[in-house]
Amino acid sequence: MYKYLEDFVGESPLVRLKRLPADRGNVVLVKLEGNNPAGSVKDRPALSMIRRAEARGDIRPGDTLIEPTSGNTGIALAMAAAMMGYRMILVMPENSSAERVQTMRAYGAEVVLTPAARSMPGSIDLARQMQADGQGVILDQFGNPDNPQAHYEGTGPEIWRDTGGRITHFVSSMGTTGTIMGVSRYLKEQNPAIQIVGVQPQPGSQIPGIRRWEDEYLPKICDFTRIDRLVLVNQAQAEETARRLAREEGILAGPSSGGALAVALQLDAELENAVIVSIVCDRGDRYLSTGLFA
């Protein structure tokens, strides 16, 4: 049977690392979400949010959708909107990488840039104002339960199946928190002893895809009780680990993936006989203009 593009969202590879882990009897695995059609873990919630909103009758093809984004969700939504017949307006900080902006526009989305000094809160505020002015409907990745539900139904079960239920630690960078919320819920239902480790940036670090939110903007889908341990990483750690992942394992990924893997490797140095899974959120080719791999 022939398949449509949306049928290839999910079922990303779970790959064992060879050279980066220490020799302590642990298994360190990375889930390659860059293999999704639009190149990131955000393909899952993007498709989920549009499909479920359609099913509820909240939107229908031809409508205009608006979303504030730092990049990957915007690219995924632009792809999904193109597939499903929506006009897409994406609002994002002006210091986002050129590859991200160009990719969104290639999918036919309109991109509205906001001042870099205001970061994501500035983009969120403008998107809300645009919706209030009747310019479109916000899907709201930060407060929409259809975001973590995609990971509860897809990412979590895939990890459990592909590790044969042997996973002991799950590590994920925290942005919108949809991935860690959905995967945590599923894995804890299978085995409450599995440790869920969230990764956030140290103060002053600017790591695309990893964020510590001001209380006013904390995603509504975030529930810190679903996280067993929070670890802070700095920008240098995240970027250097991303470079090592490319040079020593042949996996080209972005800095948020480097941040999560840095924490996974810390766990690897502390533990014995563990099965550690870290999310590789996206592909590194959308960061080439930033100098990450220079």
TrEMBL record:
Domain Tryptophan synthase beta chain-like PALP: residue ranges: 6-282
Post-translational modification N6-(pyridoxal phosphate)lysine, affected residues: 42
The metabolic or biological pathway listed in the UniProt record of this protein is: Amino-acid biosynthesis; L-cysteine biosynthesis; L-cysteine from L-serine: step 2/2
EC number from the UniProt entry: 2.5.1.47
Keywords, alphabetical: Amino-acid biosynthesis, Cysteine biosynthesis, Pyridoxal phosphate, Transferase
Give an example GO biological process: cysteine biosynthetic process from serine
What cofactors does the UniProt entry give for this protein?
pyridoxal 5'-phosphate
Q: Name one GO molecular function term.
A: cysteine synthase activity
InterPro entries cross-referenced by the UniProt entry? Cys_synth, Cys_Synth/Cystath_Beta-Synth, CysM, P-phosphate_BS, TrpB-like_PALP, TrpB-like_PALP_sf
Which transformation does this protein catalyse, written as a reaction? O-acetyl-L-serine + hydrogen sulfide = L-cysteine + acetate
Question: What enzyme category does the UniProt record give?
Answer: transferase
**Residues at which pyridoxal 5'-phosphate binds:** 72, 175-179, 256
Mind telling me which PANTHER family this protein's record contains?
A: CYSTATHIONINE BETA-SYNTHASE (PTHR10314)
Q: Which family does it belong to?
A: Belongs to the cysteine synthase/cystathionine beta-synthase family.
Q: What NCBIfam families is this protein classified in?
A: cysKM, cysM, PRK11761.1
The protein in question is named: Cysteine synthase
Annotated source species: Paludibacterium purpuratum
